[in-house]
Amino acid sequence: MFGRFLLGSGYPLRGLSLLKQPGIRRFVIIPLTINTLLFAGGLYAFFGNLLAMTNWVNSFLPSWLHWLQWLLAPLLILTVLTTLFFTFSMMTNLLAAPFNSLLAEQVEYHLTGRYPSGTPFTTQSLLVKTIPLLGNELNKILYSLLWMIPFLLLFILPVVHLAAPFLWLLYSAWMLAVQYLDLPMGNHEWSGRRVRQALRQQRALSLGFGGMVLLLNTIPLINFLAMPACVVGATLLWVEQLAAKEGDPV
Question: Per the structure, how many domains does the chain have?
């Protein structure tokens, strides 16, 4: 199981290494631009309010537990940071959905010599797919929000709130795996429900992938490349690990 987790975590890193490949590079420009602009704004907002967040966290601790602030404050700030990047990831994927789908298609062609639909996207076909793609992204956001509420409630439950940051990291890793792996699988006309069912059967692999996506999104400078790299990595994972197991030829 741990081996599958490590295997999944390697795919976003492999995606980084493929960004400069001929035939892929030009499809990275628009997702990279969108990701850079939004994440730069997110980083500015986070670091501009870091002191206020630290004071807010400490205000929840009773005086007799102030000795715990050295542990809880960093954990909760890490949770805020991952929440910020998770939220911005959903926003960037929504705005860049058509371009990410196109990037996933080109990566699959680069790997297999075949397009998911048999023929490459044209400008007209991409425009036709834009509304369904945006609708699919909104469905993923709704799915994420529905599960976000019970996980956030864990932070206010006595005793349980100590484990809440770690559970939140697992939740974020799962959602990011769904978010990115849906792109190459969606190019093969997979529904969101079918994608999630397939990923549950490969839970360790999926969490490894999502965990590395989350980590890349928190590393300065690397996070600007994270979205296109993770689209490429998700397509690699789909081609090498999931397509044959799910009976979907590539």
Answer: 1
